């Protein structure tokens, strides 16, 4: 069973990442509160996650769910003990910090719990009934500073990294594609626009 992974970030996509560890790429689901902390991370950055491993007879394909702190993973295991909350529903529900959820449970704040994605009044009451009195530890988690993604001035570096690390181009060829695209259209201001211009340039060459 996998309980912890450490490696390099290969890809970020929606609610999951691809993490390279010991030459193996692991797809890891991340709750929204964990994904927020990845906003400043780039492809190739070192990352480490505590892993909740899910595999059942009904769901034979293994699912890996990642957390920054071991205590977050411990809270997750309590959370999925509530009736009608399975691991995948819990991943979607955690769009508020564990600290705030724990405090809402202990203070019986149904309104706050209903802010969790997919949690209605009935389920919020079940959460309180099941977990009240067991959340004090999690309510003391230090509030993490919000990590803001840096303003990417050199968006061409982003495109270059994707061309090399994800799309398999050699550095010299990738740099030439980016430079030519910027030369053809100096008004490009985003990585998306640059990708489009690179594609247009390569497409015209292949005709």
Task: Give a description of the structure.
The chain is an alpha+beta fold. The chain has two domains: 136 residues, Nucleic acid-binding proteins (OB fold (Dihydrolipoamide Acetyltransferase, E2P)), CATH 2.40.50; 51 residues. 44% of the residues lie in helices and 17% in strands. It contains ten helices and five strands. The chain has a five-stranded mixed barrel. A hairpin with a 2-residue loop joins β2 and β3. α8 packs antiparallel against α9. The longest helix is centred in the C-terminal third of the chain and has 15 residues.
Low-confidence stretches: 146-152
DSSP summary: helix tally: 10
Counting DSSP E segments of at least 2 residues, the number of strands comes to 5
CATH first level of the largest domain: which class? Mainly Beta
Write down the Rg.
21 Å
CATH topology of the largest domain: OB fold (Dihydrolipoamide Acetyltransferase, E2P)
Question: Structural class, judged by helices and strands?
Answer: alpha+beta
| Main sheet specs | 5 strands, mixed, barrel
Taken together, the total number of domains comes to 2
Strand content: 15-25%
What's the pLDDT, averaged over the residues?
A: 89
Could you tell me how far the N terminus lies from the C terminus, measured between alpha carbons in angstroms?
Answer: 50 Å
What spatial order of strands do you see in the largest sheet? 1-2-3-5-4
Question: In oligomeric terms, what are we looking at?
Answer: single chain
- Relevant CATH superfamily of the largest domain: Nucleic acid-binding proteins
Q: Given the C-alpha coordinates, what overall shape results?
A: elongated
CATH architecture annotation of the largest domain: Beta Barrel
Order of helical and strand elements: EEEHEEHHHHHHHHH
């Amino acid at each position: 069973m996998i309980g912890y992974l450490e490696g390099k970030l290969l890809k970020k996509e929606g609610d999951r990442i691809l993490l390279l560890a010991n030459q193996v790429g692991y797809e890891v689901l991340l709750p929204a509160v964990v994904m927020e902390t990845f906003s400043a991370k780039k492809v190739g950055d070192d990352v480490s996650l505590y892993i909740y491993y899910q595999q059942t007879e009904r769901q034979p394909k293994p699912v890996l769910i990642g957390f920054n702190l071991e205590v977050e993973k411990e809270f997750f295991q309590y959370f999925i003990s509530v009736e009608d909350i399975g691991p995948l529903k819990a991943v979607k529900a955690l769009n508020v910090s564990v600290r705030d959820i724990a405090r809402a449970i202990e203070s019986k704040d149904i309104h706050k719990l209903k802010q969790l994605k997919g949690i209605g009044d009935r389920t919020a009451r079940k959460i309180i009934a099941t977990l009240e009195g067991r959340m004090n530890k999690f309510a003391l988690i230090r509030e993490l500073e919000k990590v803001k993604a840096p303003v990417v001035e050199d968006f061409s570096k982003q495109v270059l990294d994707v061309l090399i690390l994800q799309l398999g181009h050699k550095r010299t060829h990738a740099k030439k594609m980016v430079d030519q695209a910027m030369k053809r259209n100096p008004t490009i201001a985003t990585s998306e626009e640059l990708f489009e211009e690179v594609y247009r340039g390569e497409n015209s060459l292949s005709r």
